[in-house]
Amino acid sequence: ESPLTLPISATGSGGMEALISNLVDTNDKVVVGINGAFGERASEMFKRRGAKVFEYHVAWGKPLDMEELAALSKDQFAKIIWAVHGETSTGVKNDIEALGQMKHESLLIADCVTSLGGVEVDMEGWGIDALLSGSQKCLSTPPGLSPVSVSTRCMEHLVEKPTSWYFDLNLVADYVLKGGPRRYHHTAPTSMIVALNESLRLILVEGLEQVIERHRRASLLLAYELGSRDISLLVDEKYRLEPLTTVQIPPKFIDNEAQIRRVLLEEFKIEIGGGLGPLQGKVWRIGLMGYNANEESVARLMEALDKVLV
Amino acid sequence: ESPLTLPISATGSGGMEALISNLVDTNDKVVVGINGAFGERASEMFKRRGAKVFEYHVAWGKPLDMEELAALSKDQFAKIIWAVHGETSTGVKNDIEALGQMKHESLLIADCVTSLGGVEVDMEGWGIDALLSGSQKCLSTPPGLSPVSVSTRCMEHLVEKPTSWYFDLNLVADYVLKGGPRRYHHTAPTSMIVALNESLRLILVEGLEQVIERHRRASLLLAYELGSRDISLLVDEKYRLEPLTTVQIPPKFIDNEAQIRRVLLEEFKIEIGGGLGPLQGKVWRIGLMGYNANEESVARLMEALDKVLV
């Protein structure tokens, strides 16, 4: 039901910037929930755009407290509440649905980069006014596009002429949505769009619910296998982002954790992520996204880990 | 010799915006040469960024008078002179070399979207301080990347913190150029970068001079063939942009020019461009770029035109 749903011709951070530069004017009040790197990034973009930014921080690895976030937004009469759905830097899934119920007059914008296509995202049902994602996570497309969706209500709040021409959603919407003679905004990255279209087709063929269930099962199996080896997860079960599992590096491997990741990559062709920000050197981030979210991938990883973690 | 030469993760207009948002602060003086749609676009981006923009206009289809452009820039003590090298909307090649000799203290920025890889571009020799291009023109890569290059002199004029985070060249340079532990800015569009790398490799294998010569010969043959059919070109020979030839639509075909382009596309699988802006309905734009710049393409087009233009 969103009138503007299309892939921005840039990677996920470009989609963030597109939404931000089209929704805020100088001195607009914005509340940003921050419990990881991508909340920080959104806040930085809002500040560069000249917004008055109120940051609500929670420790990395913990979920945002949506009551407190919504209360801050209400107290400040904020135009926008921004929150990450799947925080890629920590593996936390924030409860956007709860936030949507408490957002009051604010526009709720959700970063769904590591959630769309891997876990449930119900834009309308949850009261999300705009969201963005990335092509290369659960959608299984190469990186290079950022799908965004803007609700009818949110369209009314678009800035008339944002500082950015490239990301101007009014111009892009004119190009994409208006009838009449074909208009031109910028040259579309055609091969990426074909790739995204094919990825979405494959998701429809499998069935979105089945795809999400496959992510859930892969994630559960991974958690079980890690638990059986006494490796702890960073995030409480209730808030775990299924496509991205963050594990506490066992103390005896902390000192050579980068070396272990290198061996996994070079000898086993398996890439796992290191920690970011305050979690650097403390956690590993294991992605099970898109076509890679299956029990075989978990088995392959565990076999490799059993050889490497000795 | 440019310290920052890399593809921006966006299409050509994204590269324009990257250079503009990193080089101007509010109220900086900028002189823009305009003789087509892409000069207009640059001016619009500068204005949105808050620059004081002095536009120097010449009729679409005519080359910029570089003495007048340089004089305006000198009179205004402009920080930047912006000019299009290959104006894709008209097929005019502006004499950037001449402008470089007269730029005084200004930074000369050149839009080389439809010139790089198809005609000579001598960044250092011509005194260009920064340039941008697009992957999908003479470089024969799919659309989606914008190669840019910033000279040492120009690096000193980068804005410390541009409004755009996505296009922030200082952050991107930190990621791409600095030694030490790998930094992260945004996820790179990897498959596009692989494609660009392969395209550049193919140009090196053929030899850049040979590639440019191939563009020149294809363009000359096209002009000859069109001339022999009494079809006039829009641009004087001296200023013709070899990869893009703009023809005056013969009067008897003006009324159904769109239909002719449709037949060419549907029946002959040949796409030629319509006119933009004031040239709409008056000209056709014929691209001979990259792998398509050869005498066989010209022969195929002429064969089709001979059937269609009756």
Folded structure, characterized:
The structure is a homodimer. By secondary structure, the first copy, chain A, is of the alpha/beta class. Chain A folds into 2 domains: about 5-200, 3-Layer(aba) Sandwich (Aspartate Aminotransferase, domain 2), CATH 3.40.640.10; about 205-310, Aspartate Aminotransferase, domain 1, CATH 3.90.1150.10. Helices cover about 40% and strands about 15% of the residues of chain A. The first copy, chain A, has 11 helices and 12 strands. Chain A has helices at about 10-25, 35-50, 65-75, 95-100, 125, 150-155, 170-175, 190-205, 210-225, 255-270, 295-310, and strands spanning about 5-10, 30-35, 50-55, 80-85, 85, 90-95, 105-110, 130, 145-150, 245-250, 275, 285. Chain A has a 7-stranded mixed sheet, sandwiched between helices. In chain A, strands 10-12-11 form a 3-stranded antiparallel sheet, covered by helices on one side. A two-stranded antiparallel ribbon of chain A has the order 5-6. The longest helix of chain A is centred in the C-terminal third of the chain and has 20 residues, at about 210-225. At the A-B interface, helix 1, helix 2 and helix 8 of A face helix 1, helix 2 and helix 7 of B.
List the helices and strands and how they pair.
The structure is a homodimer of 310-residue chains.
Chain A: E1 4-8, H1 12-23, E2 29-34, H2 37-48, E3 52-57, H3 66-76, E4 80-84, E5 86-87, E6 92-93, H4 96-101, E7 107-111, H5 123-126, E8 130-132, E9 146-150, H6 152-155, H7 169-177, H8 190-206, H9 208-227, E10 244-248, H10 257-268, E11 273-274, E12 283-287, H11 295-308
Parallel strand pairs in A: 2-3, 2-4, 4-7, 7-8
Antiparallel strand pairs in A: 1-9, 5-6, 8-9, 10-12, 11-12
